[in-house]
Amino acid sequence: MNKTLTISLFLVLWLLPAIAGAGPEEDAARLRRLYEQGQVAEADPQLAEFLQSHPADEIACPLELSAALAVRSVYDAKTRLRQTADHCATRPEGVRALVELARLLQLAGYDRPALAVCEEFFTRYPDAEDAPAMLLLKGSLELRLPLGATAGDSFAAFLAKYPDHPAIAEALAGLAGQKIRQGDWRGAEEAYRRALATDAGALDLPQVYFHLGLAAEKLGQKDAARHYYRELTQRWSDSLFAWRAKDRLDSTLAVGERLTVGPPEATTEKYAVSVGLYATLAEAEQAAKRFSEAGMRIHLLLNGQQCELLVGEFDSEQTALVFAQELGKRYQVATRPKRLP
Hints:
Layout: H1 2-20, H2 24-36, H3 40-53, H4 60-69, H5 74-87, H6 92-107, H7 111-124, H8 131-144, H9 153-161, H10 168-182, H11 185-199, H12 205-218, H13 222-235, H14 240-250, E1 271-278, H15 281-293, E2 298-303, E3 306-314, H16 317-331, E4 336-339
Antiparallel strand pairs: 1-3, 1-4, 2-3
């Protein structure tokens, strides 16, 4: 009888955890599944309760990161990623949270905050596995902000620190962008040529060919400029850069250009494409980012408190009309050509 009682007691004690409920690992796995399925509203209150008894550790940190990466508003995602980056700063999840926070801010158009996160990343994790990608992101943000002559220095730092990295062509293209910003067209041309020779498949080739053509123009090499523009219009005819190249070929680089005698006419008309009227200048600048990132020229026309956003610059209304049609299809926006004041 005593032997039977002992065995029964042992079985009860062995089964007690299963009877009492799941352990923290099982709870964490269940919550992760809820986030992966998009059931954020159901998972969030349970996560808050779970974290009260399990502070930042090997169980809580992966769960916090899953919650931060779940589909939610940009504001909530920023808050969650920041909390995870701080709570789990000494764990891989904290590193990943900081990387994702920088990318989220950049995609949302918050360039300065994104750059600040990149700088924080290199203060905390200068040799982390994600450091090369973050250095490239930092360089692209520097070029998009008015930071003076040092803008884009991260690309040179990348080339010096990671000379054999698979993304070397991307860094060379970024360096070319920095050279363009500095007015060093010869340096830009050399950097683009190196990038093409390194890994052309990793590049935005329409953008590269357009800027090579522009560099050739600036260096007085009109035949070379025509070559790049024609290659661009023939190989990537549906690219927005192709429309800009065609406009250069039809105007500045037209074969048999008019011989102008005397001073140029002051009444030459220029056209752009209107893509919207915004309530404030800030809203128009935010909307302009996706067009400027594609290499298009931006015009912002103030009308009282409102601001009209125009894209491109063309010598004829017909060219602007063709570009407007392509732009409307590509970005799903209402467009119309408009003469620049």
